[in-house]
């Protein structure tokens, strides 16, 4: 039976049309189980009923028309109980509902099982038989197993079938789901972008004409560099932050010391330029896709984009002007930074990427540009999306195709509110973040998502609260030198004269392996990472710290932050090494021009265990910074990148809020400055809670600074403390969300409820 089950599921998943897949499946189940009837009902949550979609044994005319309410009949009972129902004679059961049109009068035995995906009943799978009997344990086990496996396949089949659904019969399917990539809402017709050149289509061949091939390759690289320079200029007129540095990364990778060296070597060994490009790019993609960390894994998309750009110029293709709507939503299998650069000035309102995550450069750029984005919308026929009217909800990850008039009106209202809110919050961009009753808090930037710093001159932030130093390490074939790092850090520090820049030491290892420093572990999130790896390799740590301190010479605005601290001894060891680097450089640099400034040292609070050692840590460091994303992940034991459990990840979980309050209380008790960098700081309700808890600084994406500043300036600190007190007394995250949304409405900040979802 196992082979039969696998075959049924496989054939169901391969059918591009949902209706035919369902009809084939019920016939196969009926035959495999030697029963008289097999049927499947699918849930319509809008109408609160189940609709008979396919059957082998019931009247054919009833398919697509017969419905049973969620609380009606045996079908409804299976859905309500969310467990199998095995009845010898269904017509004598008190919940039996007679439906003449299905013609089941001769059927007595009934076995129904729910099809459930992520706690939601998608439908009911039923077998029936004329003989009045209970189905056996083996038969029940088979149907339960089949239903469990069908759940995931059915979700994907729904996604494939949504575009072909008849409007009359397909309303039970309302939306597709993806990963929120960038906040906001957009509505418009979809323009599908297909790769103009695709390395997958290249056939490998050797031509043994190295000089000619090298000339072709170098000319293509030159044109590609020009392309990237043009793209950077286009986007540079709109945004001014590190998300643009992806184009500099592309150009660096083309250097002879990086990808170019490997490609040239392949050409010299006899491969054609196209073949050499494909071999090298594919090799890099395999390396990146094997990395556990989601951010680094997403760099495979960047490498593929770069390769296709060079291939485009190798093939000397010409760009054809596209007939684009005045406003549109861009969709692609893998939306890239290059695509955004091409389309952003032509009426682009949002993006849909069938692959990728919120760590992709397309998502990063979308956030910088203020474009709503949904990533990872799987199992959708891309070509069928073209020219379809769609709504992109970047807050929830919902994608609506061909929405009805009611839904369109609802989202048009939301879009108008978003536009008005964006204009309104700009009024406070250059004002201090201070409450109506005089409580001040500093708003800073999270930066370093690319090789430079992420800073918009008009964001309203007063410094960098988190500069991620690991990203430049990634785009290389070896560890960077002290001189290279010094230049990077000087660039960042000089951009914020007289304002604090907090640089986090290298945070790699375990789940964030570098291509040239691979680490394979069974449980990387609890493995060799962060400060653990740099303390085990002091030569790496000392080099980086020396570069930071050197870069700070003449600036004096550097703070050094240590990631993933889990013990006091780690802090002692790190400070010892920092002191070593400082005294070495003091001797080297300050013989003539005075004293070398010593940076303040702080730690990231991400590991829950350190909450119970804050007193000891307070005696050793100058500040604390909470990494709320990882702290939430570790407190709740939830991998937020795992779609199956991501819904359990919630920074408003009472345990998380109480932990954050404890940290704030302990920091205040020991007079240690406290900041928070994480998604919670970017959320209006979250910012109010953190303000009330006593956090001194909040660090966030530039796009959110003005909004959070507006919220802070339009609330009383005393009211915020009352809101916090009640929120801490609630028992579930759902209760907290509901309460906070209500409070935002009451204090006149209801327009931010959507922005905080």
From TrEMBL:
InterPro entries: GAF (IPR003018), GAF-like_dom_sf (IPR029016), PEP-util_enz_mobile_dom (IPR008279), PEP-utilizing_PTS_enzyme (IPR050499), PEP_util_C (IPR000121), PEP_util_CS (IPR023151), Phosphohistidine_dom_sf (IPR036637), PTS_EI-like (IPR006318). Pfam families: GAF, PEP-utilisers_N, PEP-utilizers, PEP-utilizers_C. Its EC number is 2.7.3.9. It is found in: Cytoplasm. It is an enzyme of class 2 (transferase). It catalyses: L-histidyl-[protein] + phosphoenolpyruvate = N(pros)-phospho-L-histidyl-[protein] + pyruvate. SUPFAM superfamilies: Enzyme I of the PEP:sugar phosphotransferase system HPr-binding (sub)domain (SSF47831), GAF domain-like (SSF55781), Phosphoenolpyruvate/pyruvate domain (SSF51621), Phosphohistidine domain (SSF52009). GO terms for molecular function: kinase activity; metal ion binding; phosphoenolpyruvate-protein phosphotransferase activity. Keywords: Cytoplasm, Kinase, Magnesium, Metal-binding, Phosphotransferase system, Sugar transport, Transferase, Transport. Belongs to the PEP-utilizing enzyme family. This is phosphoenolpyruvate--protein phosphotransferase. It comes from Thalassomonas viridans. The gene is ptsP.
